[in-house]
Amino acid sequence: MEDLFHKSGNTRKETAQSGLFGRLRWAFALFAASFPALMPAQTVGAAETAGQGVTINVYNWGEYIANGTDGSLDINAEFTRRTGIRVNYTTFDSNEALYSKLVGGGADYDIIIPSDYMVSRLIHENMLAELDFSNIPNYQYIDDSFRNADYDPENRFSVPYTWGVVGLFYNTDYIEEEITSWSSLWDDRYAGKILMFDNPRDSFAIAQLLLGQSLNTVEESDWLEAAALLKQQKPLVQAYVMDRIFDKMESEEAWIAPYYSGDAAILVDNSDNIRFVVPKEGTNYFVDAMCIPATSSHKAEAEAYINFLCDPEIAGANMDYVGYSTPETAAKAYMDPEMVESPVHYPDEEILARTQVFVNLPENTGKLIDKLWAEAKMGGPGESAVLVAIILGFLAVYIAILVYKRRKRKRELA
Fold first, then answer.
1. Are 59 and 109 in contact (CB under 8 A)?
2. Which tens digits make up the pLDDT trace of 12-66?
3. pLDDT digit string (tens) for 98-108?
4. Do domains 12-163+287-356 and 166-285+360-378 have the same CATH topology?
5. What does the alpha-carbon distance between residue 288 and residue 160 come to, in Å, rounded to a whole number?
6. Which terminus of the chain is less hemmed in, N or C, by CB atoms within 10 Å?
7. Model-level pTM?
8. Which residue, among 319, 258, 317, 313, has the nearest Cα to 288 in the 3D structure?
9. Which run of H or E residues covers position 20?
10. Are 64 and 307 in contact (CB under 8 A)?
11. Those residues with Cβ within 8 angstroms of residue 278's Cβ, 6 or more apart along the chain or in another chain
């Protein structure tokens, strides 16, 4: 398959700022930001001004919001300027890390942005607050195709933030042939230069696609077969990573890696030799959504934040920077036309027809996945047993030393 994204003359962010269109668009944005009273009424509403002086805690993926760099709009600063609500913003690198933080307690978040299957899990475990859409009038701009999704069928707990697909990045300086299949991640010619996702659902999905399985199978034999394939790959993998893919691919420390389509612009624009492709076996189609934890202390202010991010002009400026696809057609009017027309950010029907969406799996399947994933990363239960034996050995030696020192001390004091 021909790669979907290749290096252009300007970077994505430079392109967004260049030319008459870019200058006019950003001049208008700065003018409008200076006079919020001239903005549409839904942008600054009563719910958004009621919480002045409040700080909300936002927990999002890394590299996933415009922050004022490279000429972009600083989304959080602009929200605070318009509403008086401050934003304490922190990041996570996987759905599983987010879940662990929530169930571990001690974390007081008002906004989280998990992926579809994790939204479903959090709903099932009563960990999300039901949204008051009277505080989110900009929800009207979310396209119908993103409503009533399987992960939130009644649209009660989430609002779509972005969407995309998973594909392969590879360095053409070291990999000369055209990459068309996920099997390239098992090619021993690239041993030590292969990266893999550091989370189970995305990594297992790649093995499942190669095996022709459903990404949501509940058959134990399917997961065992996929795990065996991941264990075979383990000796070839340099590292299991998430955000570190950027440094490793750009520095040419790694040559090939799976990752999300929204990051194609960042990786490809920063290097002449990195390409992106959606393999022929198909891929995962994902939606990340804005949610409010049931434990939120500032629900109305959190809903104001969601409403702000759904404003088409704000959403357009945000997506121009982060590079992911927007669920709002109205936002595209405020985006770089080159991005809107890109087949990476908005794949054609042929590619979308080969995608599968993750759903929340039964608890017993989830426990099986966690166990198999730990074994796959360790190279199998045999290596896990060796590690445990080594740890126990060191512990025994340490205890023996302590006992010896105490006895020696007693003899010296006698």
1. yes
2. 223 333 333 333 443 444 444 444 434 443 444 444 455 668 999 999 998 899 9
3. 999 999 887 89
4. yes
5. 6
6. C
7. 0.78
8. 319
9. helix 19-34
10. no
11. 1, 4, 165, 166, 167, 168, 261, 347, 351, 354
